[in-house]
Amino acid sequence: MTKQKLRWGILGTGMIAGKFAFDLPRSQGGVLLATGSRTLASAQRFSFQYGGKACAGYESVLHDPAVDAVYVVLPNGMHHEWTLRALDAGKHVLCEKPFAANFRQAEEMFAAADLSGCLLVEAFMYRAHPLLHSLIATVRSGILGELRLIRSNFTFARPELNHDARYHSGQSGGALMDVGCYCVNLCRQVVGVEPDAVQAMAHLHPGGVDEYAAALLRFPGDVLATITCGMTVVSDDMTHIAGTEGRIAIRAFWFGRDGFTVTRGDHTQTIQVEETRPLYAMEADAFAAAVFGQAPPWISREDTLGNMLVLDALRQSAGVPLG
Ligand SMILES: NC(=O)c1ccc[n+]([C@@H]2O[C@H](COP(=O)([O-])OP(=O)(O)OC[C@H]3O[C@@H](n4cnc5c(N)ncnc54)[C@H](OP(=O)(O)O)[C@@H]3O)[C@@H](O)[C@H]2O)c1
């Protein structure tokens, strides 16, 4: 890892912006330079807590010549606009998941990155954790026999707040976009190819988004996956990966902290991967390494586009507006 530090600007002062800013000082390659908010007071509170400059509005972060990279951590429906603006301002962009409102927007964002010559990566932070690499290597080792079934679940229950963009179809909210996107991403990673057929059913919220949903994915090679996701459903955070000879169970894979178990017959072993840096520090380091040309991005654009394509197809299948 280089001693060079990437100087970050953050757009938005919400929940995940705070987690990223909290972890950033424990990264090797990143420092917080400025944070923009719709209100100066919120930016000031954020900068008091995490450091860096406070900016009224997002534009001033983009036009700060000292900022190298921008973290777009706004509601889903704003990712496209603010990624394009940041790229146009010559900044590298780490854009939160789900990358865009739909596949077409995602393609436009990568085309803009090509034009600008800047790096653009989707912020699936769990993919920067070595546990995920260990999980994929274990599946590829053949220990499960022939891969057959994946069951991946990500639900949570939180009081519904009117200002929460997750409940607004105009912000591309909904369970599939908010948390189902992780399960889609993991299933595609584990199998290593794109699904050739997908279906979903959803319970719609009056806001027009899917409050909870169940999805089926079929992959070439006769692998099937089920996904459940929800925003008002008591937490289920288990993923099971099963083959003809063994199975893996992993809890809350998106945190990468509990390891996973591999069971064959009567024998179960637990695989843990120690990592001293917190999750968002690892992500910031992976991004800096890609900017400084030391490693390829930990998520390729083909991967991000593939995820968006599946999310579009699942929402269409479930009758959820694409936004
Ligand atoms: N990687 C992860 O671990 C993870 C986890 C959860 C969510 N996410 C993603 O991160 C993004 C932000 O999620 P979050 O949970 O941090 O959301 P949040 O707490 O609601 O924060 C979003 C921020 O966006 C700004 N904003 C601008 N216009 C807004 C509007 N019309 N409605 C609401 N907020 C608006 C606000 O900041 P200002 O008022 O300061 O401008 C707000 O604080 C989403 O895309 C989400 O999918 C990622």
Please characterize this protein's 3D structure:
By secondary structure, the protein is an alpha/beta fold. It has 2 domains: 6-125, NAD(P)-binding Rossmann-like Domain (Rossmann fold), CATH 3.40.50.720; 127-279 and 305-318, 2-Layer Sandwich (Dihydrodipicolinate Reductase, domain 2). It has 9 helices and 15 strands. Strands 7, 8, 9, 10, 11, 12, 13, 14 and 15 form a 9-stranded mixed beta sheet that branches. Helix 1 packs across helix 8 (279-291) and helix 4 runs parallel beside helix 5. The N and C termini lie far apart (40 Å). NADP nicotinamide-adenine-dinucleotide phosphate (NAP) binds next to helix 1.
Strand content: 25-35%
CATH topology of the largest domain: Dihydrodipicolinate Reductase, domain 2
The top level CATH class name of the largest domain: Alpha Beta
What's the average pLDDT? 96
The shape is globular
Total of domains: 2
CATH superfamily of the largest domain: Dihydrodipicolinate Reductase, domain 2
Q: Classify the helix fraction into a percent range.
A: 25-40%
Which class of secondary structure composition applies to the elements? alpha/beta
In angstroms, what separates the terminal alpha carbons? Answer: 40 Å
Biggest β-sheet strands, sense, barrel = 9 strands, mixed
Q: Which CATH architecture of the largest domain?
A: 2-Layer Sandwich
